[in-house]
Amino acid sequence: MIHPSRPAAALLAITAPPLLYVLFSLPSILTSYRTYLAIGPGGLPHNFFGFLLQACLRVVARSDVRAVPPPYYHFDTSKSKSNDPGDDEGDASDPDPAVVRRYAPLGRTSFLPASKPSSSTTAATTESRPGSGTGPGGLLPYRSSARPTVPGFVAPQRQTSMQAPPEMIARMEGFLQHLVGGENEGVLELRPSGLEGAWHQAVFLRGADDNMPGYMGRAKGEIVHVHAEGSSHVTVSLVDGEEAVRKGWAERHPLSGVGNMLPWSYVMLYAPRDDEEYEVWTRLVVAGCRFVSGGRDIKMAES
After folding, report:
1. Where is this region: Disordered (predicted)?
2. Crossing angle (nearest 10°) for helices 238-246 and 275-292
C-alpha cells in the first residue's frame, strides 16, 4: 500500500478548503455573472475580467449607499434610537467638518429649481426635513413607491426593476440635448461619458476637465449621463444629494466618498416612470449642472 508523503498531505490540507469553496460557490458565481452581463456595458469591461474587477473593488466599496443620514454625518450616541422598525433614519447632528470644507463653498447649498406650479405635488409631501436643501427650490416630494432593485455590483450600477419605457429614455436623452444648447451652450457640452464609456452620452462642464475641484475625482467635469434602463448618474451638492436619497429618488454609488474616486454626492437617480417623476429628475439634473458649474445660472431646458 502506497502512503502519501507528508508534504503531499499538507498540500492537500491547504488546497482542499478553497477548492471546495469554489466548487460549492460556482452556481452562485455563474448566476451573478449572468446578471452582470444582462445589465449591459458600462465603465468596466463587459466580460468575465470586468466581473472579477468589480468583485475586487468590493474591498473598498461602500454598502451603505441608501443610509440616511449619509455616512459623513457625526452620530450622537447620547440620543436614543427610534423603536419604530420602519424608521430608517439614524440619529446624527452635523456633517463632518472636513467634508464640509472639502466641498466648500457650495456643498451645503441647494441648487434645485422650484417645481412647476402645475405639479400635483401637495404641501404635505414636500414638507421640510432636516438637512434638506437651502435654496429657493430645495425640497423634493417623497417618491411614491419602494426603491427599485439594484444588484450589488460595484459597477456598473443599474436598477433591474421599475425600469423606464423606451419613450421615457428618449425623452430624457432629448432633455440633455436641449440642456446643452441655447443659453447654456457656452457652459455645457454633450460628449461620450468618461465614466461609462463611449456608448453613453454625458453632459460635461465645457472645457473644464483639468480644472475641477479635487472632490470631483474621476468624474472630473462630467455631470450627468443616462443609462439604457432609465437610471442615471449625476453629481449634485451635498444637501441636494441628501435630499434625493432621503426622499427615495436616489442612492449613492458604492465608490462615492471612497478616497478620490467619486464625490460623496455622486448619486444614481432611479428611472422616472411618469410625468411627475420625470419633472423631479429634470430638477435634479439642472441642480447638478448648477453645482458642478460653480453656481452658474443654468436654464431649465424644454421638457
Report:
1. 72-151
2. 160
